[in-house]
Amino acid sequence: MPWTTVQVEKLDNFFIMGDHTGDRVLTYRDALREALDQSLARDPRVFIMGEGVDDVAGVFGTTKGLKEKYGANRVFDTPIAENSMTGIAVGAAMAGLRPIFIHARMDFLLLSLDQLVNHASKWCYMFGGKVKVPLVVRTISARGWGSGAQHSQCIQGMLMNVPGLKIVAPATPYDAKGLMISAIIDNNPVLFVEHRWLHKTTGYVPEEVYSIPIGKGVIHRRGEDVTIVAVSYMLVEALKAAEKLQESGISAEVIDPRTLKPLDEKILVESVAKTGRLIIADTGCKTGSVASEIAAVAAEKAFHFLKKPIKRVCCPDTPTPTSDVLEKAFYPTAEDIFAEAVSLVRE
Amino acid sequence: MEKSKWMEMYRIMRLIRLVEQRINDEYKYDEIKTPIHLSIGQEAVAAGVCIHLRKDDYIFGTHRSHSQYIAKGGDIKKMIAELYLRKTGCARGRGGSMHLVDPEVGILGSSAIVGGNIPLGTGTALASKLLNNDRVTVVFFGDGAVDEGTFHESLNFAALKKLPVVYVCENNFYAINSHQLSRQVGDNIYKWAQNYGMPGFQIDGNDVLEVSDYAEKAISRCRNGEGPTLIECLTYRWKGHIGTVDDVGEGYRPREEYEYWVSKCPIKRFSEFLKDQGVLTDELIKKIDQEIYDLIEEAFSFAQNSPKPSPDELMDFVYAD
Predict the structure, then answer these.
(1) What domains are defined for chain B?
(2) So what's the ipTM on this one?
(3) Which CATH superfamily is domain A3-204 in?
(4) Bridge-partner residues for A228, per DSSP?
(5) What's phi and psi for B190, nearest 5 deg?
(6) Which of A172, A182, B133, B263 is most deeply packed, by most CB within 10 A?
(7) What is residue B59's three-state secondary structure?
(8) What is the pLDDT of residues A262-288, one digit of tens each?
């Protein structure tokens, strides 16, 4: 069993109450797989490429069995050449196809930035809208079990500085399916940010094809005293923290932006207008993070509502350590969010 | 090859030369506010390759792309308007000289990142294969791009998947001022093809008939599903890397080298051949040139009289609808 799978199997089951109810419960992994399966079925232009997408493990189960169902022209393995394979996907997109390119680790995405940043993201603008690049790039950030400095990065903050690139980071099974379908339908390059620890979370997911608008956040829990904006996996920690805060008599509002770029500024400003306190939890390192950008938006557009300084709960500015002791010290948890919320509300 | 195609190749080479010379002459007036990279001296490569392409085939060029754009049939008025950064330009003033585009004739945009276009053209070739059509892609790049990983990664993938793509290296020996031999061991770029499992050739890029001959075979291999080819065309740019400067002598390229290549002018050679064959006369040369001058005059006048983009368009086209 791959080492990160060992780690994920050890996690407690976490059921996410999404903004959807129903009687069909799926894991995040199976919701993603269903979105890919349904997209391959309904649109012959869609295809999936990436290292190991057609092997028995199928990218942690998210592409399992799809090659058998749709054939080797629609789901295929690639050489380990992240940059050129990105460019090849971009070229195929220019010629009218809808590629989904998968990096099993977000760290590997760094090898592809020339094609993603210099080419895919700029093409529409640079050519006055004459050529479109409808591309989805899936990346998965790992964590724990000694993943170390090169197999655990969450660099979504860095990539918010790229004009022309859309970035989504769904945290629930419902959002994973809906945003994957939206990303495939979208006529622009969309970076689809996943966290390995979310793959096992469960939630209600409808069987039919549905999309979720890119650029719209969601309120997962309504509250009055403090706003917690949580990115990707940090939603799980934020919901745990909110539960504990409730027991301590503090009412927290938990928001998931779902799309990092373009960001839903409205949902953020409206919440801060109500609570006057803001905590932002991100999976990446603190400097130049998604949390930094959200804090800047709040400072620009909601400053007069704020009763206390904005707090960011992120990883420190160090490479990820491999030691389990240091790893524990490195990652922020629900406890950190809880402590920040208590100090904002009580002090 | 039919004689009408000879004449078309001659006309295209002449068109490239005269358009480039006019750009060169106009540049000093500072109305073309974009970096330019002229193709004078390298006309035979684009002309000899593109003569065999269909309108719906794809090409990908580089920062030095004027010749390829013209040879593939890109709209000249929109090209010149783009150099003048006008709203009527092929990229609506967003791209400039290094970013020419004309999707109507299979030009999906040129990249100004060395080697950046090689994966893109490999990708359109992948699309042809997945869509099961016979559209061919030609990627043009310089010897500098062979330094980049994208050249190697793309050739490997194209061979692995037998993609309908022709890699055309315009080896003019220089990356700005840096000679090929100061960047690469050996001067046999075409030999990379062998290990990547495709045919590779090194040919005289100033002989349009030789270019045409090799390109025709490579393109036909693509149409028949036989996979990619690498063609290294030895050629030479007469002007400096950028702008209208001459970078010859005194710390730059040796004058003897420059003069040798000027003596091998691809247009002069081909016109002499055509005269020997009895299909080109001085009178006909004048007639063709006059038609080209008229076309160029019309394009420059169109460009200079076109509106510039307005500031309120700044945010348009960041995203496609």
Answers:
(1) 3-306 (3.40.50.970)
(2) 0.97
(3) Thiamin diphosphate (ThDP)-binding fold, Pyr/PP domains (3.40.50.970)
(4) A254, A279
(5) -60, -25
(6) A172
(7) strand
(8) 999 999 999 999 999 999 999 999 999
